[in-house]
Amino acid sequence: MLFPRSCKKPKLSMKFFCRYLSNKSRITLPYSEKVIMLNSQYNDPYLNLAYENFMYENLNLESHDVLYFWQNSPCVVIGRHQNPWLECDLRYLKEHGIKLARRYSGGGTVYHDLGNLNITFMTSRARYNRKWNLECIAKALSDRWNLDVDLSPRDDVVVDGIFKISGSAAKLGKYSSYHHCTLLCDVDLDRLNRAIMPRMVATSRATQSVSSHVINLKDIEPSLNVNEIITSVARTYMQENEHPKILSMDIFRKNFTEIHKIKNELLTWEWIFGKTSPFTITKSSLLPSGTKVKVDLDIQSGRINNMAILPNFVFENEINKHLRGIRFESDAVSKAIGLCLEKSAGFQDHTMEKDFRDILQNISKIA
Amino acid sequence: MAAFRVGRGALNVLNSRLISPVLANKSSPCRKIHTAWLLNAERQFTKDHEWIVMSDNVGTIGISDYAQNSLGDIVYVELPDVGSTIEQNDTFGVVESVKAASDLYSPVTGEIVEVNEALTESPDLINKEPYDGGWIAKMKLSDLSQLDELMDEAEYNDFLKETEDE
């Protein structure tokens, strides 16, 4: 068994569970419209996700729905219960300045850049209707640009029957709910494919993504642009023909402090990496002495909990002393391995020293 | 989890699981004992579709058959920390299904004394046995009178029918 019973599950601080307000104490926005349209003027993924969560936790959605349009600078957004090590290429992200965020909703991993449009359909819990929202997008696109857009049996928005242009996720609460989705307009598909191509495989219980063939809307219809899509989706959702009134995030000026508090939580290492459920990375290699070994790295709450070498290796405990409790990220692991090498100098047996160094090098390559 | 709206099918499942065993086993006294346990007259429900069964001052909490049915296949359960204190109506966990991540609301105020670790390996236990192996957490209640606000099974079934008819 890979996760022995004695293993502790990741420590989830209660602060990650939101304080959900009853309907009475929620904010009622001072607008008479049935649908409030918002378009974020920011491109910071953490801030945009914070606005979304703030609205979910605090708005009274009994008298109106909120349609929230937002775009992020390059980033990878993983689902609430996903494993970032197994969902994306962390090294590639770092090298290319692509941010990594964990959202509050479930579902799979997506890549965002300014060629992608995010649409959040926020409604009361009773009015939650994901299918209707997606049909609204499909209708908006096919009516305005005469595209062959439809829903797949998995409720994905697809073009020409096969190519996916949108990914969905949702969050349901007692009073409020949202369904949000991406819409690929003009995304750097090469970066998308590289960023969400994992480098590692492991045994894990985290929610896994389902990969799909994707396409940019712009490649099918070069004339379309994000602003026109926003207008078209907003009109279709309102079922009216007039030009929709679209507001900026400035309407939440008074709630700046609360929103930034959520943003800061979304930015913490504990939320992005530490919230990952336990997993084990296994690496087999052939040592210079000719022995075949298997190294198991057991990761809990994003930190190395234990390293096991099979068959038994005399220095296992010594290596564990340096690795236990450190963050499972390349810099921290390399640093620990360096210290371990320094402290363990002065081998009598050269074959064993070579094996020891080889094992350590292998471990530092995993992270 | 609140106000689920699903088709007639869901309610039929509920009826067949919970109500028909009683009718079917009326003639067999032996089975009746088992049915009584299954039905569990003391199980109480919230409008958000959580249930609680008391044993002394510790309540076992889970989600109803109706709730699991509306959510669809459950893929992940985020459990609370043992030892944490949770207020009535506060979120104490998240159930992620293929459709959405749904917040869990505590029917009562108390301290978490145990969580169902089996859900980490098999979250689908909630789908398979919502009233049994799919329990979520055990809580030591700080105010037993909060139980008076909850519905018994018959009231909950009526509540489901009302929501259905709306």
UniProtKB/TrEMBL annotation, chain A:
<dbReference type="InterPro" id="IPR004562">
    <property type="entry name" value="LipoylTrfase_LipoateP_Ligase"/>
</dbReference>
<dbReference type="InterPro" id="IPR004143">
    <property type="entry name" value="BPL_LPL_catalytic"/>
</dbReference>
<dbReference type="GO" id="GO:0005739">
    <property type="term" value="C:mitochondrion"/>
</dbReference>
<dbReference type="Pfam" id="PF21948">
    <property type="entry name" value="LplA-B_cat"/>
</dbReference>
<protein>
    <submittedName>
        <fullName>Lipoyltransferase 1, mitochondrial</fullName>
    </submittedName>
</protein>
<dbReference type="GO" id="GO:0009249">
    <property type="term" value="P:protein lipoylation"/>
</dbReference>
<comment type="pathway">
    <text>Protein modification; protein lipoylation via exogenous pathway; protein N(6)-(lipoyl)lysine from lipoate: step 2/2.</text>
</comment>
<dbReference type="GO" id="GO:0017118">
    <property type="term" value="F:lipoyltransferase activity"/>
</dbReference>
<dbReference type="InterPro" id="IPR045864">
    <property type="entry name" value="aa-tRNA-synth_II/BPL/LPL"/>
</dbReference>
<comment type="similarity">
    <text>Belongs to the LplA family.</text>
</comment>
Automatic annotation (TrEMBL), chain B:
<dbReference type="InterPro" id="IPR033753">
    <property type="entry name" value="GCV_H/Fam206"/>
</dbReference>
<keyword id="KW-0496">Mitochondrion</keyword>
<comment type="function">
    <text>The H protein shuttles the methylamine group of glycine from the P protein to the T protein.</text>
</comment>
<keyword id="KW-0809">Transit peptide</keyword>
<dbReference type="InterPro" id="IPR003016">
    <property type="entry name" value="2-oxoA_DH_lipoyl-BS"/>
</dbReference>
<dbReference type="InterPro" id="IPR000089">
    <property type="entry name" value="Biotin_lipoyl"/>
</dbReference>
<comment type="subunit">
    <text>The glycine cleavage system is composed of four proteins: P, T, L and H.</text>
</comment>
<dbReference type="GO" id="GO:0019464">
    <property type="term" value="P:glycine decarboxylation via glycine cleavage system"/>
</dbReference>
<dbReference type="InterPro" id="IPR017453">
    <property type="entry name" value="GCV_H_sub"/>
</dbReference>
<dbReference type="InterPro" id="IPR011053">
    <property type="entry name" value="Single_hybrid_motif"/>
</dbReference>
<keyword id="KW-0450">Lipoyl</keyword>
<dbReference type="GO" id="GO:0005739">
    <property type="term" value="C:mitochondrion"/>
</dbReference>
<dbReference type="InterPro" id="IPR002930">
    <property type="entry name" value="GCV_H"/>
</dbReference>
<dbReference type="Pfam" id="PF01597">
    <property type="entry name" value="GCV_H"/>
</dbReference>
<dbReference type="GO" id="GO:0005960">
    <property type="term" value="C:glycine cleavage complex"/>
</dbReference>
<protein>
    <recommendedName>
        <fullName>Glycine cleavage system H protein</fullName>
    </recommendedName>
</protein>
<dbReference type="GO" id="GO:0009249">
    <property type="term" value="P:protein lipoylation"/>
</dbReference>
<comment type="similarity">
    <text>Belongs to the GcvH family.</text>
</comment>
